[in-house]
Design a protein that fits this description.
single chain, alpha/beta, Alpha-Beta Plaits, Molybdenum Cofactor Biosythetic Enzyme, Chain A, 4-stranded antiparallel β-sheet, elongated
């Protein structure tokens, strides 16, 4: 199985379809529900629901997932029966296999009911009609370049040891950011404030991500320095980062990082450990991308001549 433990939860919806082709001579019997084994409409709904719910038992590499809703629709046409199964879940992996399995089991169950009436009956296709949800639905496209700065806050770490900063840079590049600068600065409040102000006001970068200095130690001053520079806080960002991390480690609640806006620049504090940064990055992207369009009115990115 693929490890999906670090993927963010989101609403997932999938719809699958199965088609059964029958001889038109049994059309009236199908419409009336007059078959030796019962009513195809009820059987299809029960079988489709059971099939979707038991997918992980039937398909070896499918994850067991919490399913919030299953809808099975049966449409009788002149020469075919169309079965559609729609599955919904709020989880960190998709539900297309659940929809496909539900449609398959429903179609086989209807086939079993109708085969005494029509020996030429066959299942012509089973296919996915629609899939929605997951991080792909939240990706934003930008015509202009996006610019980022990564600041590691540490008294002792150098770039050869800074795996957290490297991970942030890799993720930013994956989402199309140009890295304007990456540096390590000490746990000094005035230095941190000054760096944040320079990159926000003079360099006009889109985002500054800091790593380190968010704990409860006497030298952990990154949140205080950051908060002093912000025009407004974005509480939802850090609430989400801590919630995401807390589900994976009880230490996440000790992070005091803040996030917010200065001018047209987003500033986000992340913890210092590689594991915590990995979790924070997964929780931050791609949802954060939408904010750049919101705060700029689609015009902010024309202001970057001084950082190219």
């Amino acid at each position: 199985m693929i490890d999906v433990g670090d993927k963010p939860e989101s609403l997932r919806i999938a719809t699958a379809q199965a088609l059964l082709i029958f001889d038109h001579s049994i059309f009236d019997s199908i419409k009336k529900g007059d078959s030796p084994k019962g009513n195809i409409f009820e059987i299809a709904k029960v079988a489709g629901t059971m099939g979707a719910k038991r997918t992980s038992d039937l398909i070896p590499y499918c994850h067991p997932i919490p399913i919030d809703d299953i809808k099975v629709e049966v449409i009788i046409e002149s020469d075919c029966i169309r079965i559609e199964v729609k599955v919904k879940s709020i989880w960190n992996t998709g539900v297309e296999m659940e929809a496909l399995t539900g449609a398959s089991i429903a179609a086989l169950s209807v086939y079993d009911i109708l085969k005494p009436l029509d020996h030429s009956l066959y299942i012509s296709s089973i296919k996915l009609l629609q899939k929605k949800g997951g991080i792909g639905d939240f990706k934003e496209e930008f015509k202009e370049n996006l610019y980022a700065v990564v600041l590691t806050i540490s008294d002792s770490r150098d770039k050869n040891q800074d795996k957290s900063g490297e991970l942030i840079i890799e993720t930013l590049k994956k989402y199309g950011f140009t890295i304007v600068d990456y540096k390590i600065i000490p746990d000094e409040r005035e230095i941190i404030e000054n760096e944040l102000i320079i990159y926000s006001d003079k360099k006009n970068v889109n985002i500054i991500i800091t790593t380190g200095g968010t704990g409860a130690g006497p030298r952990d001053v990154t949140p205080e320095a950051t908060r002093k520079t912000l025009d407004k806080e974005l509480l939802g960002i850090v609430e989400n980062l801590r919630y995401y991390g807390q589900r994976r480690t009880p230490l996440s609640m000790l992070s005091r990082g803040v996030a917010g806006i200065r001018g047209s620049t987003i500033i986000v504090n992340m913890p210092g450990s590689v594991t915590a940064v990995s979790q924070s990055i997964n929780a931050l992207f791609p949802g954060i991308m939408h904010v750049f369009k919101v705060i700029s009115g689609h015009t902010h990115h024309h202001q970057h001549q001084d950082v190219r």
